[in-house]
Amino acid sequence: MTKRTDxxxxxxxxxxxxxxxxxxxxxxxxxxxxxxxxxxxxxQDFYRALDFDMRTVLMQINLADDYFxxxxxxxxxxxxxxxxxxxxxxxxxxxxxxxxxYEAAEQEIxxxxxxxxxxxxxxxRLEAELKGAxxxxxxxRR
Length: 142
Prior knowledge:
Blueprint: E1 5-11, E2 14-20, H1 24-42, H2 45-48, H3 52-141
Antiparallel strand pairs: 1-2
């Protein structure tokens, strides 16, 4: 089991101790993300005019918005990944089928080559027999 990590961070100019089973680097990264959000809001005039509760709600809404956008993005990537995996599976299946057909075609070519060779041998034998028969017939006529 992972050991618990406690780390001091500064969020919105206040010191906090974050604890969890994540690494110190991860917890610092979370604090840095939240600080970036605060900095983004503080740079906008409308934010300064809001009361504390509204600022807090606005921050929560934006964090939830970021979360849901990233969740949708992750789902889209996962869906695309599954689609690509299916395409790869289909391509591998097609490749295996083509390899099998190629091997069968090579075997058929070899069989036809042997058959052709045997037919050529048979044709040469028949031609030799025909020439031999023609010679015999030519001698018999003389």
